[in-house]
């Protein structure tokens, strides 16, 4: 599918950009706003003569790294909490629901802006902050998936054979929820990339001169009427990446959703 091709190509470029014959993201390769198909700038240059293509690929590395690591951290921590809460219920379930409601009531953008005002923003700061904010969402998602599994025959059979809670949770229930929570994780990764782009656009994200798609849009927005490519190229990269991630998430959910497949 085209979504996988785009994500694979972008990830490969982002991972190997320093090995490719492209200039560094902060190198001036020509006059400001050179047109596309220039020798050192296939997508043209920005307001100070840096390669838009190079900066877009370095921006992809920052966005993909941020989205992937934050989503994985939140998935692991939230998944474990949701697994325990869904199996044992009681106080743990109440705490997970309460934390989810509190976090959802507090806008992530406002939290990141307040955090940036208190400490110097960086990729690591954004990643850890958003991972923590996303933990309750994963916990709630995992709890629901576990509740859907606990009444099924294979769980009852494991209990009848004398299996303990740990074995039932990690050997019986967890494997049957992995695809559901993985598809949710990909969707969350897309959301995180949008949040990072929005925060960087406002000037509270990844600090310059390190590129991010939102930062590139902010740097060139005043020239939108005369130099639309400098603004639209990072927007297109962002749109295609988020669209591809959401498409992949939808495909995984429809193909592997435990609720649709009898295991």
* CATH second-level architecture: Orthogonal Bundle
Helix count equals 10
Number of domains: 1
**Mass-distribution shape:** elongated
At the fourth CATH level, what is the homologous superfamily?
MetI-like
Secondary structure layout:
Blueprint: H1 2-16, H2 52-88, H3 90-104, H4 108-118, H5 123-150, H6 153-160, H7 165-173, H8 178-201, H9 213-220, H10 228-256
What does this structure look like?
There is one protein chain. This protein has 263 residues and is mainly alpha-helical. The protein has a single domain, classed as MetI-like fold (Orthogonal Bundle), CATH 1.10.3720.10. Helices cover 70% and strands 0% of the residues. It has 10 helices and no strands. It has helices spanning 2-16, 52-88, 90-104, 108-118, 123-150, 153-160, 165-173, 178-201, 213-220, 228-256. The chain is elongated and about 75 Å long. The two termini are 26 Å apart. The model is unreliable at 258-263 (pLDDT under 50).
Short description:
The protein is mainly α and 263 residues long. 70% of the residues lie in helices and 0% in strands. It is elongated and about 75 Å long.
């Amino acid at each position: 599918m085209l979504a996988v091709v785009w994500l694979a190509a972008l990830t490969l470029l982002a991972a190997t950009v320093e090995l490719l014959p492209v200039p560094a993201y902060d190198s001036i390769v020509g006059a400001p706003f050179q047109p596309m198909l220039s020798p050192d700038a296939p997508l043209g240059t920005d307001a100070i003569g840096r390669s838009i293509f190079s900066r877009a690929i370095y921006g992809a590395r920052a966005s993909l790294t941020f989205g992937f690591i934050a989503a994985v951290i939140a998935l692991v921590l939230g998944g474990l909490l949701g697994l325990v809460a869904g199996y044992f219920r009681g106080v743990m379930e109440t705490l997970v629901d309460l934390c989810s409601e509190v976090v959802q009531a507090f806008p992530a953008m406002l939290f990141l802006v307040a955090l940036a005002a208190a400490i110097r923003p960086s990729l690591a700061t954004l990643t850890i902050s958003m991972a923590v904010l996303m933990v309750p969402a994963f916990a709630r998602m995992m709890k629901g998936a576990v509740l859907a599994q606990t009444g099924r025959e294979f769980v009852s059979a494991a209990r009848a054979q004398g299996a303990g809670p740990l074995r039932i949770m990690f050997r019986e229930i967890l494997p049957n929820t992995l695809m559901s929570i993985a598809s949710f994780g990909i969707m969350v990764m897309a959301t995180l990339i949008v949040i990072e782009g929005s925060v960087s656009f406002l000037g509270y994200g990844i600090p310059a001169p390190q590129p991010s798609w939102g930062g590139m849009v902010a740097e060139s927005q005043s020239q939108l009427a005369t130099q639309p490519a400098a603004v639209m190229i990072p927007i297109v990269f962002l749109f295609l990446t988020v669209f591809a991630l959401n498409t992949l998430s939808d495909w995984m959910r429809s193909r592997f959703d435990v609720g649709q497949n009898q295991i």
